[in-house]
Amino acid sequence: MKEKYGLTTPEVEKLRQEYGYNETPKIQKSFISLILKRLVGPIPYVIELALVIELILGNFIQVVFIFALLLFSAIDGAIQENRASKSIGELDTKLIAYASVLRDSKWQKLSSRELVPSDLIHLSVGSVVPADCKVVKGAILVNQSVITGETKAVTKVEDDELYSGSTIIEGTADVTVEKTGVHSSLGKTTELVRTNEAPGRLENLLFTVVKYLAYLDVVLAVILTITALIRHTPFLSLLPFVVILFVATIPISMPSSFAVANSLEAGSLSKKGVLVSGLTGIQEAGSMNVLLMDKTGTITKNKPVVDEIISLNGLDKMQLFKYALATVKPSSVSPLDLAILQKAKSDDIVSIEVKQQISFDPKLKGAKAVLNNGDEIFLGSPVKGNLENQVKSKIDELSQQGLQVMVLTINQEAIGLITFKDQIKPDMPETIAALKKQGITVLMLTGDTVPTAQAIAQKVGLNDRIGTVDEALSAPLSFGGFADVYPEDKFKIVKSLQDKGYVVGMTGDGVNDAPALKKADVGIAIDTATDISKLAARIILTEPSLKGIMELVDAGHRVYQRMMTWLITKLARTAQLALLLTIGYLFTNFFPVSLNIIVFIVIFNDCVTLTLGTDRVKINHLPEAWNLKNLSKISAIYTVGWLILGFAMLWYSVKFTSFTHAQISGILFVYLIYSAMGMILSTRTRDHFWSIKTSKSVGTVIFINLVLSSLISILWLHTAALNVLAVFLICFVMFLVLDLIKVSYYK
Questions:
Q1: Cα–Cα distance for residue pair 293/524, rounded to 1 Å
Q2: How far apart are CA 141 and CA 358, in angstroms?
Q3: What residues contact 726, with CB distance under 8 A and at least 6 apart?
Q4: Is the pLDDT of residue 47 over 80?
Q5: Are 311 and 317 in contact (CB under 8 A)?
Q6: DSSP 693
Q7: Measured between alpha carbons, how far is 136 from 158 in angstroms, rounded to an integer?
Q8: Domain span(s) for CATH 3.40.1110.10 in the chain
Q9: Per-residue confidence band for 189, with pLDDT thresholds at 50, 70 and 90
């Protein structure tokens, strides 16, 4: 009896008291484990090797400083991971999977969290199995690789078991829930999103920069070795310097800085209805220059209503509608099916009896029903049938009105047309216009006919030149969209655009959008998306409006600008420090800055680097481009300018003063800190440095660094206060000059 009618509310409440909700407890990682994780990997290994070498050499002061640096970075990284987890961890509560459940003899759409054992649910194409179940009726093709690892789909029929987290590829079935929550194979469906994503363009560029800085260190180390051989200097006396050089170069704070920039934006976006399941989606949004929009559900509301029933052979419209209704299962959640069911309910129409039903299949672009007399009814897209010219003309006429047209056939003979009217989202023209202003080309994808696509394109402000799939693969940007697009075509179009060098965004909501959403650089699932589409996307909109895309793009620009500041200053500061110390040693035969002080320089620089993710920035309203060549050019301006000043200070101190090595080290120490803070203030905007204020955290850390470095130079390295003041004023003048050169370069 329960299999036929499902559970009643009292039965559900009783079972929930026994089994609880269909959810798994969130796995909490200890803070210590997060710290230890950051002591493993290529970058920490370099620092740890340096630590061991210094320990062997007996340089215990440097050992303490390097260990403090390593520990500080690990602790901060753990803090930032916690912050990032909070930003994207809200998937547990916001990314809700739904199921069609038979409760109190009525089919209802409920959160999968509400399921209890013995519930009767309906699964169709694109459903993610929300708990361990058993098939009681129907046949389905299931991808259960998330549990078993097997990539080949498996057919499941009556009495077969289904694993939680599997995906329905074909067919429909009624199933009973057997195990929920912690007792199921996987737990709730949102656990599927907990996978490691591939690094984005920004991360790849960051590691490329690190690689080239390491190359610079190797070259300088070779030069020092050759010099030591020529001068008969023991190499062990140079080894500490080489070690510290690598410590200063390797950006141990980089992962934390990156996490800060992204997680803060993710948290802010979450409050605006934009849920981030993949942090790289934010940074890629700033570079996105093509956005593919699926028409149904994205541009339109995907809440169609039956508009008109047209007979092609004189058959009564009521009979035609009954045939159409025969293809629809009461448990279906397809928008078109719901429109038919709604009309049947409002007009009090009862379906004729059928022998078999085959739900809507994206590949067939239609649904089928076999009547008791053997007649086969098909309701589907007109692109699938061989239609007479007169019928095609009628379809074109209706499509030009923006209506979605479905053809009704009996035994492959067209007998009628059913039109559906779907409203365009009210904010869509405004959103598309705003995206165009951002330099983003918007292209519409639809399975509808060309006339329907043209009518919609005109209404939302897109180019009404609609192309074919072949044209989408060859010259996509000369069109406003593409019609008659099949599920596999969307994936091909995304890949083709990426192969042409575009950064591609994709919005969608249906089962057939999932592969393209996964492939896109910025996959965006809208609020009404199917479970599988939400799991495939990096970004999920939790509100009906698509204005969240603009928020996402702006967030991407902010991340870009903050990381640009980090990259430019890292390139310039590292080259400046490495060349000043190496060349200075070659000409003076002593280290211009003591090795202990270099560790202070690293710590001070890392402290301000970690706050850059909070900085205020000006948004560039055009797609960003990660170009190492251009980055190197602007970095070279700062490197050359500050090196000229640094060499001048070193030359003057050695040639015309009686400063001790400690005092020279003090002067160059404050020069390196002042110049580093100046570079950060200058590079954070393409305009003059005063055009935008720093955030409180960035401004505070820069001020503290300036004060502490001055005090260390005066009190510890015995540099005269007047000399420190003179260095500050000279550096300030150079800072103004370089800021003027920077503005001229960008213009």
A1: 10
A2: 13
A3: none
A4: no
A5: yes
A6: P
A7: 5
A8: 303-423
A9: very low
Separation of alpha carbons 432 and 437, rounded Å: 9
Dist. CA 564–CA 212, nearest whole Å: 17
DSSP 187: -
CATH architecture, domain 303-423 = 3-Layer(aba) Sandwich (3.40)
Mean of per-residue pLDDT scores for the chain: 82
Task: Please report the pLDDT score of residue 92 as a whole number.
Answer: 47
* Burial class of 229 by CB neighbour count within 10 A (0 to 12, 13 to 18, 19+): exposed
3-state SS assignment for residue 388: coil
pLDDT at 667: 95
Rounded Cα distance, 254 and 305, in Å: 53
CA 566 to CA 680: how far, in whole Å?
A: 8
Q: Which token pair is 492? A: 């091909």
Q: Is the pLDDT of residue 91 over 60?
A: no
Alpha-carbon distances of 589 from 57, 112, 231, 237, 661, rounded to whole Å? 21, 72, 10, 12, 11
Other Cβ atoms less than 10 A from the Cβ of 156: the count is 26
- The residues of the chain that CATH labels 2.70.150.10 are 9-24+101-194
Q: What is the pLDDT of residue 254?
A: 64
CATH 1.20.1110.10 fits 202-264+556-746, yes or no: yes
CATH 3.40.50.1000 in the chain is located at 276-299+425-542
If residue 172 lies in a helix (H) or strand (E), which one and from where to where? strand 167-179
User: What is the per-residue pLDDT across 685-739, written as a single tens digit (0 to 9) for each?
Assistant: 889 999 999 999 999 999 999 999 999 999 988 899 999 999 999 999 999 999 9
Distances from the Cα of 528 to the Cαs of 170, 488, 541, 577, in angstroms? Answer: 21, 21, 9, 54
What distance in Å separates the CA atoms of residue 456 and residue 299, rounded to the nearest whole number? Answer: 9
Asked whether the beta carbons of 168 and 129 are under 8 A apart, the reply is: yes
Mean of pLDDT values over 661-685: 93
Dump strand ranges (E) for 18-153.
98-103, 106-111, 120-123, 132-143
Closest by CA position to 736, among listed 693, 674, 694:
674
Residues carrying CATH 1.20.1110.10, the chain: 202-264+556-746
- Return phi, psi of residue 140, to 5°: -140, 150
Query: Which tokens belong to 376?
Result: 């086969």
Rg of the chain over CA atoms, in angstroms? Answer: 32
CB contact at 8 A, 248 and 602: yes
Please, which residues have CB within 8 angstroms of residue 629's CB and are 6 or more apart in sequence?
none
Name the class of domain 9-24+101-194: mainly beta
CATH number of 276-299+425-542: 3.40.50.1000
Which of these, 465, 505, 24, lies nearest to 283 by C-alpha position? 505
Q: What are phi and psi of 551, to 5 degrees?
A: -60, -40
Question: Which residue intervals of 387-513 are DSSP H helices?
Answer: 389-399, 428-437, 450-460, 469-474, 487-499
Give residue 83's pLDDT: 59
* Contact assessment for residue 643 and residue 576, using Cβ atoms and an 8 Å cutoff: yes
Mean pLDDT of 407-425: 88
CA atoms within 13 A on the CB side of 413: 9
State the first-to-last Cα distance of the chain, in angstroms, to the nearest integer.
77
